[in-house]
Amino acid sequence: MGCAIINLLLIIFIYEASADTQTATEPEVVRTSQDFHYCCDYKQARGNYAANSPYQTNLNTLLSTLTSNTDIDYGFYNFTNGENPDKVYAIGLCRGDINPDECRNCLKLSRANLTELCPVQKDAIGWYEDDKCMLRYSDYKIFNKVEDGQTYYAGSEEIATDLDQFTKDLKNLMNTLKGKAASGDSRLKYDVGSIRGPDNKLIYGLVQCTPDLSGSECDDCLGRSIQVIPTDCCESRTGGKVVRPSCNLRFRTSGPFNEAFVEGCSNAKIISFKCHLLISVVVVIVVPVVVVVAAVVLIYIYIYPKKDPIPEKEEIEIDNSESLQFSINDIRNATDDFSDYNKIGEGGFGAVYKGRLSNGQEIAIKRLSGKTSQGDREFENEVRLLSKLQHRNLVRLLGFCVEGKERLLVYEFVINKSLDYFIFDQTKRAQLDWEKRYKIITGIARGILYLHQDSRLRIIHRDLKPSNILLDEEMNPKLSDFGLARLFDVDQTLGHTNRPFGTSGYMAPEYVNGKFSEKSDVFSFGVLVLEVISGQKNSGIWNGEKKEDLLSIAWRNWREGTAANIVDATLINGSQNEIVRCIHIGLLCVQENVAARPTMAFVVTVFNSHSQTLPVPLEPAYYDDSAQLPEFNSGATIEYTTRSTSGEEGQ
């Protein structure tokens, strides 16, 4: 094993030395300036700002936030700060082959240089350190749109020997990379590769778009850049670049670009330089590891005795604390023997009854149906977790009862039922003005943050929805129903399940595919926020003859600048800035990409500080709910896809 590691280090050392040599001998690139930049002054009608003005303050705050952000590790930053007419928009984009630390260092340098080169202009853009990063800011919206202005070209001095063949091969390479980059997600639209050109020399290429573009917009931007290679840019040159605000490309024969990912080595024409390294690693390391593992397995099989198989149904094991135990007679007396008169709710788990103990205390009793072993697991899970949790935004578990087939959970009684009782009723939701709804939204956020970070346990709820949010007499929200919740270790970031249980419309895309994390709860919270603001369920909204989901409608209105269209008409007296900011937060939480969603700690910070800068949301996931999930999923699936800007083509 030690020899394998040494061999790998030798391979990497030889490769790095080779790469350094190639870079050192790269033909000199003709450039207009060491660091290309563009300032737009008053002659272009963008205007200038005065020293110490609100615009300059917003700009400095925004750029400081952008260059110090460590939550984003994929090289794309898009933030806003302030309110019109002093609102500032900014984009930071690093090349896909640049690591996060190098990216942030480049953007910090860009920030210092660009504000010095464009000291009063509201609109500026600059590329720095051999175009490792681009920084752009403006007083008008620059997100989610293709920008063709401020383009620059550069070509190497070396001339191609067989120009026709070189041009043909280069075009094939660039078109292939263009298609792969355009199919990227909202985090990264980037690809690199190489092709065998004249004289058996490799031509290396790199293409990239700002990932806020749709797939078709990225494809179009790169396509127009490819068209100018043999004319405006780099006629007959073996290296060159076309750099635009929305996309960029480069090519050379002197050596490869670093790759962020190894896509595979099956294409004989378009190849990846790391494929050769990957094959070496497989031979040198993986084969010995497989041999060692196989030997360990054989030793285990023959030395250790076989154990009895785990029984299909485990007995329920709960710490039978006297303070938590209720007798079945106590519960029957409290509920008048589970009379229909005392039934206050019912779901896939069973029924909920209102009761009154002999001391006069009102309680709520969840009576699990007991039809499946799943119910036993939910019961045990909820008792184990809730008995250890105390927070004003979590429902309080008073105790439980296990007798015969009965599985009963006893909670504090929360008088105002659940959130869905109000929010989805056209008459009752009028009782929830914006002040109450904002208190509900922020209270839910604090409850989730407690589960994720502030309690002595780390818990993923996995079934956040309006029917699981109870409201007390002062309309304070309390998270309930922890039957699907899962406990995470302190350093655990991701969990897996073969059967994702949950509710249609609230499950994150990755959870549908068996992966869950804190960000799965964040997704559900985002759906909740949009539902509370709009008074509409996420699924089943009819727009004429077309059925849409709330995320789709919210995203379309956000992009068109008409976010107020989704706000419940009864909220006419609410703070419009606060409502729109909550829509902004909701859209951030339902991002398709897990890494693009904020943490609940960030969300709560935003609620506590209205000056906190928010990144610009990208397109959320869209789900097809034609296969409706039951309360506990029995195998039905929801399919998630990504919408393009027009909604007609996926990215």
From TrEMBL:
<keyword id="KW-0808">Transferase</keyword>
<feature type="transmembrane region" description="Helical">
    <location>
        <begin position="277"/>
        <end position="303"/>
    </location>
</feature>
<keyword id="KW-0723">Serine/threonine-protein kinase</keyword>
<dbReference type="InterPro" id="IPR011009">
    <property type="entry name" value="Kinase-like_dom_sf"/>
</dbReference>
<dbReference type="InterPro" id="IPR008271">
    <property type="entry name" value="Ser/Thr_kinase_AS"/>
</dbReference>
<keyword id="KW-0325">Glycoprotein</keyword>
<keyword id="KW-0812">Transmembrane</keyword>
<dbReference type="InterPro" id="IPR038408">
    <property type="entry name" value="GNK2_sf"/>
</dbReference>
<feature type="domain" description="Gnk2-homologous">
    <location>
        <begin position="37"/>
        <end position="142"/>
    </location>
</feature>
<keyword id="KW-0472">Membrane</keyword>
<feature type="binding site">
    <location>
        <position position="366"/>
    </location>
    <ligand>
        <name>ATP</name>
    </ligand>
</feature>
<dbReference type="Pfam" id="PF00069">
    <property type="entry name" value="Pkinase"/>
</dbReference>
<dbReference type="InterPro" id="IPR017441">
    <property type="entry name" value="Protein_kinase_ATP_BS"/>
</dbReference>
<feature type="domain" description="Gnk2-homologous">
    <location>
        <begin position="148"/>
        <end position="256"/>
    </location>
</feature>
<feature type="domain" description="Protein kinase">
    <location>
        <begin position="338"/>
        <end position="613"/>
    </location>
</feature>
<keyword id="KW-0597">Phosphoprotein</keyword>
<keyword id="KW-0067">ATP-binding</keyword>
<keyword id="KW-0675">Receptor</keyword>
<keyword id="KW-1133">Transmembrane helix</keyword>
<keyword id="KW-0418">Kinase</keyword>
<dbReference type="InterPro" id="IPR002902">
    <property type="entry name" value="GNK2"/>
</dbReference>
<keyword id="KW-0547">Nucleotide-binding</keyword>
<dbReference type="GO" id="GO:0009737">
    <property type="term" value="P:response to abscisic acid"/>
</dbReference>
<dbReference type="Pfam" id="PF01657">
    <property type="entry name" value="Stress-antifung"/>
</dbReference>
<keyword id="KW-0677">Repeat</keyword>
<dbReference type="GO" id="GO:0004674">
    <property type="term" value="F:protein serine/threonine kinase activity"/>
</dbReference>
<protein>
    <submittedName>
        <fullName>Cysteine-rich receptor-like protein kinase</fullName>
    </submittedName>
</protein>
<dbReference type="GO" id="GO:0005886">
    <property type="term" value="C:plasma membrane"/>
</dbReference>
<keyword id="KW-0732">Signal</keyword>
<dbReference type="GO" id="GO:0007165">
    <property type="term" value="P:signal transduction"/>
</dbReference>
<feature type="signal peptide">
    <location>
        <begin position="1"/>
        <end position="19"/>
    </location>
</feature>
<dbReference type="InterPro" id="IPR000719">
    <property type="entry name" value="Prot_kinase_dom"/>
</dbReference>
<dbReference type="GO" id="GO:0005524">
    <property type="term" value="F:ATP binding"/>
</dbReference>
<dbReference type="GO" id="GO:0006955">
    <property type="term" value="P:immune response"/>
</dbReference>
